[in-house]
Design goal:
The complex is a heterotrimer of chains A (755), B (91) and C (130). Chain A contains 26 helices and 23 strands. By secondary structure, chain A is of the alpha+beta class. Chain A has a 6-stranded mixed β-sheet with strand order 15-19-20-18-17-16. In chain A, strands 1-5-2-4-3 form a 5-stranded mixed β-sheet. In chain A, a hairpin with a 5-residue loop joins strand 22 and strand 23. In chain B, helix 1 runs parallel beside helix 2. Chain C has a single domain, classed as Response regulator (Rossmann fold, 3-Layer(aba) Sandwich), CATH 3.40.50.2300. Chain C has 5 helices and 5 strands, in the order βαβαβαβαβα. Chain C has a 5-stranded parallel β-sheet with strand order 2-1-3-4-5, with helices on both faces. In chain C, strand 3, helix 3 and strand 4 form a beta-alpha-beta unit. Chain C is globular and about 35 Å long. Classes of the chains: A alpha+beta (755), B alpha/beta (91), C alpha/beta (130). Chains A and C meet through helix 1, helix 10, helix 11 and helix 12 of A and helix 1, helix 4, strand 5 and helix 5 of C. Chain C: Keywords: Phosphoprotein. Chain C: This is Response regulator. Chain C: Pfam families: Response_reg (PF00072). Chain C: InterPro entries: Bact_response_regulator, CheY-like_superfamily, Sig_transdc_resp-reg_receiver.
Amino acid sequence: MNALLAQFLAEAADLLTQIDEGLLELERTPGDPELINDVFRAAHTLKGSSGLFDFPELTRLTHAAEDLLDAVRAGELPLDSGMTDDVLAAFDLIRGWLAHVTGSESLPPSAAADAAVLITRLRTPIGGEAAPEPTTVEPGRVPAWLAYVDEEWLAATAAWLRTTSSQMRFVRYVPDSGCFFRGEDPLHLIRQVPALAHLDVIEPIEWPADHDEYACLIGFVFAARAGAGEIGYLFRYVGDQIEVADLDGDAIQRYLSGETGEALKVAAPASGDDPDLVTEARAVLAAALHALTTNPTGSAHLISVANAITNAAHVLGDPVEIREPDVVTLTATVTRLLGDTPPPEEPEGPGSVDDGGQVGSRILKVDQAKVDHLMELAGELNVAKNSLPFLARAAEEEFGSRDLAQRIRDQHAGLHRIAEDLRAAVMDIRMLPLSVAFARLPRMIRDLGRRLGKDVELVVTGDDTMADKDVIEALADPLMHLVRNSLDHGVEPPGERRAAGKPATARITLDAIADGDAVLVDFADDGRGVDPARVRRTAYDKGLIGAVESRSLSDADALDLIFRPGFSTAEEISDLSGRGVGMDAVRAGVEKLGGTVTLRSEPGGGTSIRLRLPLSMAVTQVMVVSVGGQRFGIPVDLVAESVRVPAGEIGRVLHQDVVVLRGEVIPVVDLARVLEMPCRPDAAADRAIVIAGVAGQRVGLLVEQFHREVDVLLKPMEGLLAYADEFSGTALLGDGLVLLVLNLKEVLGLAARVG
Amino acid sequence: MPLELGDTSATLTGVVTVDEVEPFAAWLRGTAKPRVNLRKCNHLHTGAFQAMMRFRPKISAAPADSFLAGLVLPLLEGSSGAPIRQESDPS
Amino acid sequence: MTETQPKVLVVDDAATVRAYHSTLLTEAGFRVVQAANGLEAVETALTTPFDLFVVDVNMPKMNGYTFVETLRSDTVGTPAPVVMISTEDRPGDADRAYAAGANLYLVKPVPPERLVRIARLLTADRVAAR
């Protein structure tokens, strides 16, 4: 993909987010002029950038939305929710197209048809299909296409225009090649231009050999004394195909005598009142100042700086003459010029001139893949560093050099610190605010609310809390399930709410807070809450629990049932959340991140759900154990302790090995058996048992030997092992061996099946 | 019938529409020294005009229509429609 | 083509960007010559005088900084204005550009009308001198 397109896609994604957020914000504070302006600007920028590429539907659709927003901005009509829906739909469509563009660098084939529907809807409130704006050449500039006009006629016309002090309107009309198919006849249009004075044709430089008669390959330049309005009206459906320039006799004369229109423009006096040009002039001066700080010595360089300053000074209406350019003189001149002229009114946007980086913070946009790669390298450095203790032991045991071993250990300590700092620094780059994960929710709540006829207000706090981007990304889906579930089942319709003495508008709160190595996300609604009795009944009806359990379960445990796969409290499955995924998907998603989900509810008073997530999941600490001669990793955060017990202390209760630890009976799982590893334990030796906490339950894992704890970079399982659920991933150890890291939950499930 | 195609000469009558473009262009392409009579032509579809720009037939009779006679005919009779002052395509 | 039109050398390895900048400048009335990297650009600049250089930063064979340094060195020794346009804004890039001899360092995307305005502004003295 070319860089320009990649740039556009990145820019477009940002703009679409701005538009979405702005529109939703506008629904809360309707008519806020600043918000409308922001949304309009974003749409405008998107349209402008899209014009660089051959995505006509994209440009047209954005243009239609921009026109509607412009009318709102001008106060011509208020933005109602129907219009908001249409604008949102337009940008949703565009978002989909951009995904297609990312893959194929083209719009999907359906783009034209899809765009047409929305364009009509967007244009309706502002009086139907508006004229595409004809391009008007800035006054005084002679367009290059004047070259197509017969020179003799131009000369005669210039003389006559000068005598009468009048202007002639020149129009370049380049119909698009498919115009005949749409029933357009450009010559017929031109025929209708009032007071048409001259016509010239733009022929292709070379006629294609197999020229299709129905492709329009020519264009026209004509001159007329018609009014701008008349031409605008006549060409209202093809306004984007014409460019208009109003020229007087002097301009044409200067053109004929060889001066370019461009030179005229710059040489024009009082150009200081063109704000854009003033901005550029100041940018050039700032750049000159920056260049001067590098202490240029070459004469070519100094002269170029002097020339740039002279040109800028001219634009600022404060001409300077620099005779002998040297750093001191030039610096003084620039400083004076910058000080004398007022700065441009609007702050410069992105892509503006670098003025030395003194203003504001500098933000670097980096491709995510690069940061991921850096993270990987930092992780590998960490792992490589872990090989030093092995080396130290080898130095001591195999080569008998205690000294060398100590020195290696010292090196390891130093390297360890640097690697840790590096890891922390990279992690910090990867940190994103939770607002990223929350970004889609306002929109979703609004859309769902409208579909379900429920009024919902979202209150977000703590969305500036940071977490690793992997966590943020993985959090998006669980949050969406929560929202769906809440709107479907929790939030009551306004009537029911009023009857219950609640405000008609429901409130969903989303609160994020950092808690040590974890981040807590509290999601709460003030809906009808979850009724434990009803949950018990449903779970029993669905065969999730037996009759005894249904009676013995505490309310809190009953509520937890809604996280079981196959549970859904809604009698009918709605098209919104009843897609076979429910709260079980939330729990699965969060647990996959190494987090937990808990639910509290007050019947009639609402539901609150707490997600607890690790701040980062890039590097995992694992405890290495060996089983049947092979090493495996167990995530350290699951390990409560490791104990050695005499073989005789392992008892057996109901076909289950158990060990009694400080009065607690803990079931013991023989990892060798579960993993089908060969194992011939020495009957007399002590047993090594890792006590782990899995799903709120303590369990002992019988292993052959404990090893140390290491930091590893967990990689997902690939290839043949991809379906081996008992492993959560692989990691490279310092000594080059690949470590399989156990997914304890699956391992225990497997153990139960193995029996 | 707006289009009468002979061995070497064609006569265009009334309004020449997009329907006449294809046969007219094919005739121009296949005729060695084509001549076109525009006297009774009231309008020339852009496609037909484009075909004439490309194959440059001799105009045997000028159109009576003022727009065609005053503004279009000079282009059809001009030696070349190439830009006068510039080599590159300024579009 | 008239000799009074300012002449620009557009140096960029990305063909699309090069074509895009060239089209913009041609439409604005500049005569445009293109080069795909610094080395090619030096060869062109040695044989033809230019009124303006629009230069990308990251290019194969010879990057933009080296090219601009060569322009300002005695090898070429031209005081013509140089606009450097970078795709990525890394810290220090602007310093390098200005030290090499650029007159303006911009970061993409540069709006088309802005590029044209800047090109006109920087070449105004050269056009007026004709």
